[in-house]
Amino acid sequence: MAEGAKYNAQELYDRLKAATAPESLLKKHLTPQVFAETKDLVSKFKGTLADCIRSGCMNPDSGVGVYACDPDAYTTFAALLNPVIKDYHKVDKLEHPKPDFGDTNNLGFGDLDPSGNMIVSTRVRVGRSHASYGFPPVLTLEDRVDMEKKTVKCLETLTEDLAGEYCPLTGMTKEKQAELTADHFLFNDSDRFLREAGGYNDWPTGRGIFFAKNKKFLVWVNEEDHLRFISMQMGGNLGEVYTRLVKAIKQLESSGLDFAKKDELGYLTFCPSNLGTTLRASVHIKIPKLAAEPDFKKFCDDLHIQARGIHGEHTESVGGVYDISNKRRLGLTEIQAVQEMRAGVEAVIKREKELAGK
Ligand code: ARG
């Protein structure tokens, strides 16, 4: 059990107020009035305000600092979550278009780096949540096992190049885990933000990874979200990676799973930063010159893209290789989110070449 689990909402709030770290979105929007309004509410799956704010109060250096205890938290705790969502996604109004994946037979883009010199690999993921279960803070071990069973049954219906095998984390050897993590396939239990939010309760029970035979399509089961669908391959062919993901989403949506959604928020996820399309399209790209520029972060912000280290969120870059992805997921369609990333990566490549004098 995480350290903060023993504290109630008032104790957590007092800790947050006393913290001196730069302001998280939680700290900014959990005003005394919002706290008073939400402190005694309970959501459909019996989640509380403490469940939503525990991670951000125990980790005052959070950027966001709040998680939804279950899909219904977006209604019950809207007084807190709505301002956080608007602030993170930089929107004045909460609205989200219907899913639109574009015409994958006619995308108008393919390989973003035909020379093969800069982009190491390309990945696109979406998150999905089962409508009938809560999120980590309210889940029991039985819930996780049940969800895993239902999910695996549907994954087994995937066909052609998407067909594959499910590997539960329970019973997986340490060596195999280390190998899959180093190859950027597998998740682990090392994120202190997620841990404090209950994300590693009963670890590793109910978690696992599904691989298509060619390892270019995978599904994470019960990592941060109930489901993460991931399409990835070496090199810069975003067209192929995205097309494969869309095919998988369409097959899985018609396989009997019911995903949590809300009109103005799109697909519901554990973290408010992933709502909407839930789509993060990224490349690992070598940009030593651009990354050394003092205005690198602003360059990325202006293009609505984000640079991370290559071993996941909150990690550092290695050898000038960065993970570049779209930042916005809400208030735009899936194809628009991918196009935003594509345009950003193209601008990054152009600038790196200019700086390198090529
Ligand atoms: N809760 C963490 C924070 O506020 C992570 C937020 C976004 N990342 C994520 N994996 N959901 O900094």
What are the SSEs and their pairings?
Blueprint: H1 9-18, H2 25-29, H3 32-38, H4 49-58, H5 73-76, H6 78-89, E1 119-128, H7 141-155, E2 164-168, H8 174-182, H9 192-196, E3 208-212, E4 217-221, E5 227-234, H10 238-253, E6 261-262, E7 266-267, E8 280-286, H11 288-291, H12 296-302, E9 305-308, E10 321-326, H13 334-355
Antiparallel strand pairs: 1-5, 1-8, 2-3, 3-4, 4-5, 6-7, 8-10, 9-10
The protein binds arginine.
What features would you highlight for this structure?
Arginine kinase, 35% helix, Creatine Kinase, Chain A, domain 2, binds arginine, eight-stranded antiparallel β-sheet, globular, arginine kinase activity, 13 helices, two-stranded antiparallel sheet, Transferase Creatine Kinase, Chain A, domain 1, alpha+beta, 358 residues
